[in-house]
């Protein structure tokens, strides 16, 4: 089944007139197996599945990969058709950000949480993400929206926005999909040369080493992961580590060694010119145990 393709707000409004509940999967396109798993999750949650495909300039910094970010709309539509997607909303930049509004634009402020961890590496990134996600929610009006847990801070921030701004949508996370060797699927993986890919896999190896040390407490987790990353930092090509942190899954504040309950071990770094992120959810024993 070919999905309905909407390129403008008017086409979207006409297509959105369908009955029943709607699940939205917001994406920037270059769809891969990870996105497919989001689409399947969305199908379980609502009568109609909509996908947005939009490379959002607002969430890219001046020296980031906006220009080279892969744009593969015909392939993406084929994947959507194969996954039984009902509606693809693929607006242009002018549709999402009409030129007349330039200079007088109101955007979402991601607050303090938008300035830490990934937000510290990419100033303004989460303001851009939250702005476009809120716009997509207002345009598509989904009952539920599905996001990948690979972007754990993004997911936490979208949940925060929905709670703080009373946005009437249910946010659902879907687990990270990995290659056989552990590398988390990402549209940016296609930038990696074979040698860079070998270095990149150290991110997931480090997370696995950290997870295996979870029984020994937070400090051991970070140490075990760091040991793996030290190897990658010394490799050729090297990993340039941006951060390795153990954080609270809701606030992304770092936890201390006495922490009990859920946490996220999050890592990011650059291999060549490619920025890669990954994370693993962990749980530490409660004091009463
Ligand atoms: O995760 C992404 O692909 C993007 O950040 C999102 C949520 C579609 C907003 O542009």
From TrEMBL:
Keywords: ATP-binding, Cytoplasm, Ligase, Nucleotide-binding, Pantothenate biosynthesis. It is found in: Cytoplasm. SUPFAM superfamilies: Nucleotidylyl transferase. It is an enzyme of class 6 (ligase). Pfam families: Pantoate_ligase. Homodimer. The reaction proceeds by a bi uni uni bi ping pong mechanism. This is Pantothenate synthetase.
